[in-house]
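Predict the holo structure. Ligand: protoporphyrin IX containing FE.
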Amino acid sequence: MNDWHPQRRGQSCEGSDVAPQDRIPGFPFRPSTHPLGLSAEGTALSRHGPVSPVRLPGGQDAWFVTGHRACQEVFRDEAAFRRGDADAIAPFPALQGLVLVLDGPEHRGVRRLVSDRFTPAAVEPLRPRVRRVADRLVDGIAAHGGPVDLVAALALPLPLTVIGDLMDVPEKDRDRLRYWGDGLLSPGGGGAAAQAATTAIVGYMAALLAERRADPGDDLVSLIAVRAREAGIDDLPAALLAVALIVAGWETTAGALATFVYTLLTERHPDGGTLYRFLHEHPEHVPSAVEELLRFLPNSVYAAAQPRRAACPVDLGGTAVAAGDVVIPALDHAGRDPAEFPDPERLDLTRTPNRHLAFGLGPHVCLGAALARQELQVALAALTRRLPDLELAVPPGELDWTPETMIRRPRALPVRWKGAMERCEGR
Ligand code: HEM
């Protein structure tokens, strides 16, 4: 049993067998200095065992879960590990009432409003549409003469266009939504600017729902409006679901896409070329490459998936978790657990099986997982097919990875390619 128990810590200071308080690291950890790396503190804890104590900014202790099996348990067992008020004390408070922080029947009721539209079978027919959006964006890049910022030209507009179109959000409003969404995802979540952004985006979605309820169309906002009324779900949780779709569906996928392309361009395949070149030559490996990049690359800067609170005493990976303890599943560290992934530090684009937890698991498993997978597959396929010579236009060390939100990505990803270079030289 892990004997660094938050509940026993008080006793341990006077007594004998438990590590001294100052050995409990403060959380959140400093992000790694390497763009693809995990935090040094989290990595050190993962070597100690699957579940380790950390101290939250308010002084309260929590459990940091780095083991793959233990993380699975936290996600699956919603009777023992509940979202509920965990966010109130977590380092990054989430908006109360958001589907992400609901539990039990209330959670299922809200999620059910749209869940049938996000199953793999429901999402697959969208592929031609997503391909058209990706092709248009990649054509735009190819037609451009000089270096292009891939974040602005592809990573951000692709997921926004896809989810914006599915929700039929007017184009003129999308920039505003992004601005508010970033406020919501900022690490200082509770600040005045974030509050203002929250009020604005919830108000916007509530108004859009009211409009669509009066005159429904064939879009997700109309669906939420109509079904929420039928199911007796209030306007606020319905509006918050629409907010969650935009916010959770956008920066996450954009961050993943930008970070994936950076990695493919900078990491080498054993055959000597870049991983990007490998995917150009082997497009059949795009789906497994997406899974491997999801496993390997931390989507959240701070290694913090949404925390849970234990509803009852439970043994988690050999650690006695007491009722009321906060538990933080660290998906990125779970993705490097050698007990689940042979040679976990190796980025193997053909790795199978690959049971990563990048989308969580269980009742809160990412609603948009099938859509995100499809967008990432389509974007990488379009890019590697159309621009086989893509390369970074600046040395990797010059990229700015300072987080704007809790999602990891470079602020800009300047790239160039042979055709463009020739055009530039010919001018
Ligand atoms: C690479 C992209 C993405 C990643 C890495 C990601 C990751 C996650 C994770 C880890 C969770 C589970 C959180 C938990 O259990 O506490 C989650 C939940 C969620 N995601 Fe995603 N996501 C991505 C893309 C998307 C997209 C495209 C959408 C929507 C279109 C979306 C909508 C949601 C929603 C609504 C939830 C809450 C589900 C619930 O609480 O029942 N996500 N996501």
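The chain has 18 helices and ten strands. Residues 62 and 364 are 21 Å apart (CA to CA).
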